[in-house]
Records
---
Amino acid sequence: MTARKSLVDEIRERGVLRVPVEFNPPPEVDGFPPEIYIDPETNEPSGLAPIISRILAQDLGVELECVDMPWPEHIPALLEGRVDLLPKHVNTPERALTVEFCNGRLMEYRVTALVPVASAYTSKGELNQPDKVIAVWHGSSIREIIQREFPRAAMKEFQKPSKEVDEGRADACLTDSVTNIFVEKHPGLRFLRDPEGKLVVFSREYAQLGIKPGDQRFLNWLNNWHQYHEAQGTIGYWCVDYWESFMADKV
């Protein structure tokens, strides 16, 4: 019986690494984290996901193709073979039943809550009530955290959950990667803090590279790739130094 060809070989033969993206505006426009956007000067994909993916493609000796699609379609597209790799998904136990994740972290996400500045909220208990609405980004794994931490409240998914809070249609939104630029541009929102003023962090999670299960050779190569670039300082520079320089939720 002929052994099944690894996707890493198919990628090299094809000459293209395909990764899913959903473009947001550049960070300076509305404070989106520097993950996936079109650089207005070069008109090329930029942000952490394209940067890491471009390094992967270069090391594979191929070109990079960023396939633009809504976030909830990224994992289905991977499993259906329409893309080759997830460049920045959070590794959760539930997702790991469907996706195989590379060992080693990329950027750290800290899940916090944004509430109206005018509100007096200082605990999750005040928000965990039947008359409260907690907003979340569509397709986000943060849904699991809301279900765990706010079982009595109503959870609703939106493309711009912070806008729902800002305009009074939600009482809070759980989110990650809140930037300094976002805080400056949204003076009507604030972090949920406890009575002593300490930032309430609901979860700390790492983004990791993910592939369709069952391809051990590709997974081995990605683990080796990450180990090499961790030693070279590439991961630390982009996923810690560069990433954290944007963040307002450092604790």
Note: The two ends are 55 Å apart (CA to CA).
---
Amino acid sequence: MNNIFMKINSIISVLEQLAPLSYQEDYDNAGLTIGNPDMEVAGCLICLDISESVIEEATAKGIKLILSHHPLIFRGLKRLTGQTMTERIAEKAIREGVAIYSMHTNLDNIFDGVNKILSDKLGLKDVSILRKMGGTLRKLVTFCPVTHADKVREAVFVAGAGNIGEYDQCSFNSKGQGTFRAGKQANPYAGEIGSLHFEPEVRIETIFPAYLQKTVISALLEAHPYEEVAYDIYRLENESNRHGAGMIGYLPAKMTELDFLVLLKDKLKIKCIRHSPLLGKMVETVAVCGGSGSFLIPDAIKHNADFFVTGDVKYHQFFDAEAKIVIADAGHFETEQFTCNLLADYLKKNFSNFAVQISETTVNPVNYF
């Protein structure tokens, strides 16, 4: 099968259905950092981190798009002089015409992201978000003639509104009477210019993800019959079951702490694990956070996890276990290594004849003796 050429923008659109950029942390720089979004590419090379060797690999394979987990550029570059590794990589990518797109904390903060695939590798069941994210939802309230209520509801539902858990097309509707008086330059749907008009209307309330606001409002305005559409947008602080940091779940069967450490080394294919003192308890509930997750230690304790698996734990943070939990530092790279497989599988599922490859270049900067 011949691979097709696609605009980078089209690929990004599908990637951001999985992990919208609005879910990234404030400090992050996910997204397209190098390249023209209108450029056509026939393949994608996936990696955790971008190095000069990764650029060289992409060039040798004729691939013009790199999809990485960690962004190449975290902070603004003031110059490109080749004095730093980041500058040299950016220069090489630009010179070779290679675009770079990154999915970092936005991929960490979704249910089917980094922590889900890590949980799956460890065999965890009944998983849920460890620290749920709030503020991801918006409520739309609008008013329309009774005769057009079905059309307006359907339009915003198709645009992505009205989903709550396993339910869709969710809304609340109440009938009332709206009033308006059309000015001289108006083109009213009903009523006469200069006269107060009473119209039977339906108040429609529904929710939608914040990142879909532009799409939902466009659909509303397109379907609504009024020349001037009245609507309100409310920010909701409800916590989302599908978005947030870390994950927690259960082993299929209880095991000793030593047996779990052996399982961890086997599943992650690692040589050693740094951990807090063992407690002599059976392990059943396990919390995880791929990459640097020590900020979630209090959450893991709060949820009565027996083990917390993450990376980049500092010396004094191991004291935070306080004989309540075992903290296992399995490594930053090691707990995120399956992210490449997650992204490759997702792209292959959505683009059957688009060349997707996982980088063969070793990028883990940490070595063990």
Note: Residues 85-96 form the longest helix (12 residues).
